[in-house]
Amino acid sequence: MDSKVNLAVCSLNQWSIDFQGNFERIKQGFILAKASHASYCLTPELSLCGYGCEDHFYENDTQLHCWQVYQIINFSSF
Q: Which residue of 24, 38, 47, 54 is most buried, as measured by CB atoms within 10 A?
């Protein structure tokens, strides 16, 4: 059985605690990946909350907002 998987890797310019901006950049990366016929799109591990959150990683709001953005990404079709 022949299976073909196209993989896109996004290098995003994410900002700490900028959930809306980070979501928009992730969304744009997914749209470009889909236009390139990618089956999967990989983003950096901290693309939702951004790097350098320091003590914000310990706040419940940071985790809550990450899960909220994750749900939008999961249920959206780009």
A: 47
Which amino acid, residue 57?
F
DSSP collapsed to 3 states, the chain: CCCCCCEEECCCCCCCCCHHHHHHHHHHHHHHHHHCCCCEEECCCCCCCCCCCHHHHHCHHHHHHHHHHHHHHHHCCC
pTM, entire model? 0.85
CA 7 to the chain's CA centroid: 15
Domain boundaries, given as residue ranges, for the chain: 7-75
Render pLDDT for 60-70 as a digit per residue (tens, 0 to 9).
899 999 999 99
Integer Rg of the chain from CA: 14
